[in-house]
């Protein structure tokens, strides 16, 4: 508890507060743009945080994340275009509410829901991480290897679309992570004698290319087809009746979202889908859903925020990201010289608790800052996309260059942008790739260390109870779907995921 | 169609991974070498993309509409291609002509791409304005050391 207060002290430091504020502001700015969501916002804005004090940088990234999520919901409600998968659900009833003249109430309830969920999430992280860290301290390379494997298996079980494609993405991510000097022997892999590749491919250019540049290119293609008609906002405060109807969905969404966030491949998106399905099932009159039911906005909006908070736990306690946002954050933390994992809370408590506190402060800031500024965001929505995309591209070019002051990185940005564009065209979800890319290095290292510890005996894994338990769960998850009943249940769950 | 195309693309990628990774030492079971993961990844990609190609062919043979995509938006694709080419040119020319000149050209070019035929002058003015603003913001105010260009000091 004391430590959490320390985190708040760190965030409330005027210098850090300023960057949290700036992050939330520019995050919203990018998030509001149709077609660009939190992952794109973080990826694009990462270079901005490079020159800062590391704690401030991490706090700013958290601000960007929350700002972009909020901006995405606003766009989903007002123009029916989701910035990213996590606001797809918000479109369903949020836009209908807007058409019924309740746009303000939908935006208001989504801010309130996010705030409540953010509070639940911050408390949840505080409560859950300490016991988890105590367990994790005992983990050695075999346990970490088993955990990462479990992460990939769960990711595949929950994956949207074709599992074959997701597996290809994982394999491609692992291969990309191998580029550069091998950590154990120092020999070069796939460097083609290019000096820019010796240290491996940077997380910034990969993330910015695939999630930022690639996304912008996809939007450039559809530019002329998209008409944007923003609905008038109206009053932001929901009525008493609306608040009453939303209270339980927000509470359920917060808890449910947080738990889903803990899963690999979980996080904000899945949380919002499951919450929507749950509220619809629990509703006395499910037919209202899809026609502007405020529960269909309140629940998922709370759930995606809580899911985001939940997904920070495996990152902060084990150093294992479960979704693209936390994967990019892991890459950023490593760049700043931190090693997320069980030791971070002792070595850099100010970073650990600073992130937790900044989630909370970020939410307060959104409530105070963005609701009054809603008029500005609506104006921004009216700016045609053709005027926006050129500055976005220039911004990314500057960002990629500034990481190492090297033109090579701009070239890599371009290459990964084109890769991201084609992946979307060919229906490959890039999320498993970025996860495998970030986890590839540690996965390989832990496996090799495990084998060195055991002198090459694979049976070694089974002498360690925790590692073998995790591997057993992996096996179970692979075998179970082969049985009919489980498969039909799973395909039901997937249908929810693709709702 | 997408499965088939995706499978072919990744089959080529996996093949290249194996081709360029073949020389990497595999080590022993006791001390695995640097080649293990890339080769494992490459083999996985090749096998999986073959499966994907098989899937794509089956769907086609099943008589389902081969073209599951919306009709190609050639104008849009051309815009994407030209944007990529322009950024590629910036990568090549930035060290020579510097940030200011390159960004003015890039911004004007991208704006031209998106504007109506009547709005050409506006697009160029817009490009110059955006480039000038970002020069002031990033190079002047935030001190990002963007290259000034060797051409101008010759």
What's the topology here?
The complex is a heterodimer of chains A (499) and B (154).
Chain A: H1 2-12, H2 14-32, H3 38-45, H4 54-79, H5 88-99, H6 103-136, H7 141-158, H8 163-178, E1 180-181, E2 188-189, H9 203-222, H10 240-261, H11 268-282, H12 295-318, H13 324-335, H14 344-347, H15 349-369, H16 374-382, H17 385-404, H18 407-425, H19 431-453, H20 465-479, H21 484-497
Antiparallel strand pairs in A: 1-2
Helix pairs in contact in A: 1-15, 2-3, 2-4, 2-15, 3-4, 3-9, 4-5, 4-6, 4-13, 4-15, 5-6, 5-12, 6-10, 6-12, 6-15, 7-19, 7-20, 8-19, 9-17, 9-18, 10-11, 10-12, 11-12, 13-19, 17-18
Chain B: H1 2-21, H2 36-61, H3 74-114, H4 120-141
Give an overview in words.
The complex is a heterodimer of chains A (499) and B (154). Chain A is mostly helical and 499 residues long. Helix content of chain A is 73%, strand content 1%. In chain A, a hairpin with a 6-residue loop joins β1 and β2. In chain A, α3 packs antiparallel against α4 (54-79), α9 (203-222) packs across α18 (407-425) and α10 runs parallel beside α12 (295-318). Chains A and B meet through α8, α9, α17, α18 and α19 of A and α1, α2, α3 and α4 of B.
Total number of β-strand segments of chain A? 2
Largest sheet: number of strands, sense, barrel closure of chain A: 2 strands, antiparallel
Largest interface: A-B, 57 and 65 residues
The radius of gyration of chain A is: 22 Å
Work out the helicity level of chain A.
over 70%
Report the span from N to C terminus of chain B: 53 Å
- By DSSP (H or I, 4+ residues per run), the number of helices of chain B equals 4
Supply the helix-strand structural class of chain B. Answer: mainly alpha
Share of residues in helices of chain B: over 70%
Low-confidence stretches of chain A: none
